[in-house]
Amino acid sequence: MAEIVFERVTKRYDDGQLAVNALDLKIADGEFLVLVGPSGCGKSTALRMIAGLEEISDGSLVIDGAIANELSPRDRNIAMVFQSYALYPHLSVAENIGFGLKVRGSDKSEIRAKVEATAKLLELSELLDRKPGRLSGGQRQRVAMGRALVRSPKAFLMDEPLSNLDARLRGQMRAEIAHLQKMTGVTTVYVTHDQVEAMTMGDRVAVMNKGVLQQLAAPRVLYDSPANLFVAGFIGSPPMNLLPGKIVATEAGYALELGELTIALDDAALDARPGIPRFAGQPIIAGIRPEALRLLGSVTPGPSRFSGTVAFVEDLGASLLVHLDLAGASVVAAGVSEDGEELSSARTRLRAVVDGALPVGKGDPICLTVDPARIHLFDAKTEQAIGA
Ligand SMILES: Nc1ncnc2c1ncn2[C@@H]1O[C@H](COP(=O)(O)OP(=O)(O)O)[C@@H](O)[C@H]1O
Ligand SMILES: [Mg+2]
């Protein structure tokens, strides 16, 4: 098992494409680290540099304390784990797991011992004689991991292993892979463009955009304290509402002006983001998660209230996702979608998640409110979070 450290690692492809830009990232021994970001942000390139499949243009890759830039893939002993369907269909589970050892010429008794130990760890002992065609999706994934694990790799690398599965199986496999990683304790770097996968699986999550690491933190920290506008818009589903506005000093303290709307920033809000006074008079972007909005019984517009007309409602069962045509303020879409598509066009719809039992329907006038301490604030110029 290994610690993997990127020290200002840069990858520039021969055609000049800057895929990874001065990446600093330390992956602890035994950690499950998820690398997430929109398509084209450099995730696969970073992973392939760990495996030794991509030359490093600048900086150092350090594996277990030794610079590994020039090590051949074989000498790194790092396993790329492929999708479950990459199993050999005509071989049994035992033969699939032992395949790599056999190719390397290990002797039969050694292969058997290692296959049995691996199967035991992955709870596959009962299935060793089966062919992959007669296994469930979860069992196949375990065999795929077993095939890598049997060689005692220093680390597992996984590049979007679930992307071709249907939603239901993907959900199961998320939990399965995270569980197996905990059981085996092998350092794992898992690449995905899916922020839900990232949030549910990783001990820590590294968010990348355009080759640059945006934030490295536990999922909860990314959600509660996104470091910049990109992370704020990318993490969370449905995504955070982003509203342009400014901070103003008032007699009572500070307030947030969002178009015609004014929200007083109370002591709790100032405690949560002590940097607010420094931004008085400055343009900011306010970020409000759909689940932070609360439906008010009254529909009378007033200070600190978002009022408007319900454009449509998505009924999710336990909750309703309400799309509100907002009066007096505008909402801008977050920077980039998971597919890497730029979202620059302004929208005016505010999204709110409310209790599924509430009587909200298309065309209804409604009012929503938010606890000011739950409003995220970003410098409109630098796009960095306004925190301390
Ligand atoms: N072999 C290559 N030659 C040139 N450019 C490449 C190559 N592979 C990837 N790229 C470019 O590098 C950037 C990062 O790609 P990649 O690491 O595959 O991103 P991701 O896995 O996040 O989708 C993209 O702009 C991509 O087009
Ligand atoms: Mg990729």
Automatic annotation (TrEMBL):
CDD domains: ABC_MalK_N. Keywords: ATP-binding, Cell membrane, Membrane, Nucleotide-binding, Translocase, Transport. It is a peripheral membrane protein. Transmembrane segments: none annotated. GO terms for molecular function: ABC-type transporter activity; ATP binding; ATP hydrolysis activity. It is found in: Cell inner membrane. SMART domains: AAA (SM00382). Residues 4-235 form the ABC transporter domain. It comes from the Bacteria. GO terms for cellular component: ATP-binding cassette (ABC) transporter complex, substrate-binding subunit-containing. InterPro entries: AAA+_ATPase, ABC_transporter-like_ATP-bd, ABC_transporter-like_CS, ABC_transpr_MalK-like, ABC_transpr_MalK/UgpC-like, Mo/tungstate-bd_C_term_dom, OB_MalK-like, P-loop_NTPase. This is Sn-glycerol-3-phosphate ABC transporter ATP-binding protein UgpC. The gene is ugpC.
